[in-house]
Amino acid sequence: MAEKGPLIEQDDGHYSEEEALVYISDEKHPSGATRKAEVRRERRLCYCVVGVMAGSVALGVVVAISLFFTFHEGYFNQDQDNSVNDSPVTLKTSLTVNTSELDHSGEWVLVKWVNVPDPNISDWVGLYSVPGNFKENGINVTAKAPVKFQYADYSQTHMTKGEGSIQFRLVNIRQPLVFGLFRGGLDTHLETAQFSQATTLALSDTVSFKNWNEPLQVHLALTNDPTEMIVSWVTNSSSNPEVNWGTESGNLTNTLKANSSSYSASDMCGSPAIDFGYRDPGLLHKAKLSGLQPGLTYYYTCGDQQFGWSQEFSFRAATPANASATTRVVVYGDMGNGHVDGTWQVIREQPGAVNTSRMLRGLVNQTDVVFHIGDISYARGFANVWDEFFDEVQAVCGNVPYMVCIGNHERNWNEPTSYWKSPDSMGECGVPYERRFPMPRPALDQPWYNIDYGSVHYLVMSTEHNFTKGLHSVPVSGE
Ligand SMILES: *[C@@H]1O[C@H](CO)[C@@H](O)[C@H](O)[C@H]1NC(C)=O
Ligand SMILES: *[C@@H]1O[C@H](CO)[C@@H](O)[C@H](O)[C@H]1NC(C)=O
Ligand SMILES: *[C@@H]1O[C@H](CO)[C@@H](O)[C@H](O)[C@H]1NC(C)=O
Ligand SMILES: *[C@@H]1O[C@H](CO)[C@@H](O)[C@H](O)[C@H]1NC(C)=O
Ligand SMILES: *[C@@H]1O[C@H](CO)[C@@H](O)[C@H](O)[C@H]1NC(C)=O
Ligand SMILES: *[C@@H]1O[C@H](CO)[C@@H](O)[C@H](O)[C@H]1NC(C)=O
Ligand SMILES: *[C@@H]1O[C@H](CO)[C@@H](O)[C@H](O)[C@H]1NC(C)=O
Ligand SMILES: *[C@@H]1O[C@H](CO)[C@@H](O)[C@H](O)[C@H]1NC(C)=O
Ligand SMILES: *[C@@H]1O[C@H](CO)[C@@H](O)[C@H](O)[C@H]1NC(C)=O
Ligand SMILES: *[C@@H]1O[C@H](CO)[C@@H](O)[C@H](O)[C@H]1NC(C)=O
């Protein structure tokens, strides 16, 4: 939502953003005096099924016409009996992870630390992807954003014993990962965590995913032709991306080659998207299935002969207009992503998204199409949040077409081509959005479209562009 951006007010009650202020410090950081009264803004989202129009928080509008961080001097006094020996024994602070290799995205790791001198509430554990010899060079927390982090006192033994452990769930971001235990330098009072000089207490060994080309972020999109469906996914660098598909589960007799593309920092507009938050997005693959029979269920896997395949997904081809048939649509905005491991990311995560996405997964077999109308991932310049977001929704968008509309947090930036001059996209200026979601739009940076599904005609417009009457035309689909 546009807390910093322009707000278009409506008097018809159609903007129904609700913001709930949740005071979490007492539960999550019992000893966290300096973090007290931390306010987490949780956005509740609207969803609706068939015929009820959600309010567009993203300033995007869908109109349905018709039905609707080594502290070597770890200090540890093992002697209870001071009459025998009262010189302190110094043990090295260490941080360990219970594995060095992970098979699949979404696996959990256990991070443990011991011998932390004078445990402090400002101690935190950060997950970093850092190239080169990080053990010698260390991690400069002001140079690159962590993937995620957690305060050490999240572990109950930290403050009392100077040791603890935390479980992290890791998404495959195609980079070697390392954990650091740091002291200070982290301020989480703002919506974007702030990093300053931190003391490194310990660094773990590297953890890496075995397969950087594991097919991930699988999602579907409709085109203007109901006999087509676009399958999109992401890998590191596979060169022979394909979709195997068919009408019988386990017997995917058709194979289609996909096109691949990517984007880099130079395609975007500013910081943090191009520096502090930037990570290689990987290779984005797209394949357009065609000749689909209306209403028929199709099964597919995507991937590469060399690097392996995704799990099998299925979808139902678009149904033709039929006044007596029901179209089941889920429409929502402003979701973002939440972390099931309770960790934090640099740009505030949306804890409510954990429950919402769980609910969406439960509805997947009763949903024909999803419209996520703006403010999609809230990545806002922190590239790995896109990976996290797709991980959260893949069980939905891999099985149901996932149609999107741009929001202020995807598009707006203080640069000439931005209609609304605001920092809302934090340098992304719409680039990750449009490269990741192949919508039936007329051109890049013209994210509006028109689509039919069943008996419903959808007009998706962007309120982040100049929508003066007559300035642009929307290609007409259907009759
Ligand atoms: C590491 O710890 C996590 C979280 O407790 C657990 O799920 C995972 O199985 C462990 N991995 C190994 C290799 O023991
Ligand atoms: C933690 O560090 C801060 C700043 O150095 C200090 O003021 C505080 O007393 C320390 N102790 C605890 C228990 O947090
Ligand atoms: C850490 O990174 C910041 C920002 O890139 C840079 O200004 C600073 O010099 C770096 N510090 C060290 C010790 O390399
Ligand atoms: C991942 O992709 C990068 C750049 O595209 C490439 O240089 C690197 O070799 C790839 N690594 C693996 C393990 O595929
Ligand atoms: C798989 O599908 C093909 C083409 O539809 C069919 O000829 C073949 O019998 C099927 N195989 C199995 C094991 O069902
Ligand atoms: C793949 O590239 C070809 C040639 O440029 C183009 O015709 C086709 O539409 C592309 N497919 C997708 C799914 O973008
Ligand atoms: C229209 O939908 C109804 C209800 O699902 C179904 O009975 C009927 O066969 C459909 N008509 C056509 C032409 O597909
Ligand atoms: C998620 O749902 C559970 C119950 O299912 C509830 O206890 C919890 O408060 C919800 N969390 C959020 C952030 O809404
Ligand atoms: C959806 O249907 C598939 C196939 O019947 C089934 O395996 C899956 O468990 C269902 N999912 C839900 C959430 O009901
Ligand atoms: C929007 O487009 C109209 C029509 O071309 C133009 O008059 C107006 O100046 C534009 N507004 C902005 C802020 O560019």
TrEMBL record:
Q: Where, by residue number, does the polypeptide cross the bilayer?
A: 45-69
Q: What is its main location?
A: secreted
- Domain Calcineurin-like phosphoesterase as annotated: residue spans: 328-424
Q: Where is the Purple acid phosphatase N-terminal domain?
A: 215-316
Q: Which family does it belong to?
A: Belongs to the metallophosphoesterase superfamily. Purple acid phosphatase family.
Keyword Cytoplasm assigned: no
Catalytically driven reaction(s): a phosphate monoester + H2O = an alcohol + phosphate
Might you give the EC number(s) for this enzyme?
3.1.3.2
GO MF term (any one): metal ion binding
| Subunit architecture | Homodimer.
In what residue span(s) does the Purple acid phosphatase Fn3-like domain sit? 96-189
Q: Which GO terms describe its cellular component?
A: extracellular region
Q: Protein name, please?
A: Purple acid phosphatase
Q: What keywords sit in the KW lines? A: Hydrolase, Membrane, Secreted, Signal, Transmembrane, Transmembrane helix
The listed locations are: Secreted
Which PANTHER family would you find in this protein's record? PURPLE ACID PHOSPHATASE, PURPLE ACID PHOSPHATASE-RELATED
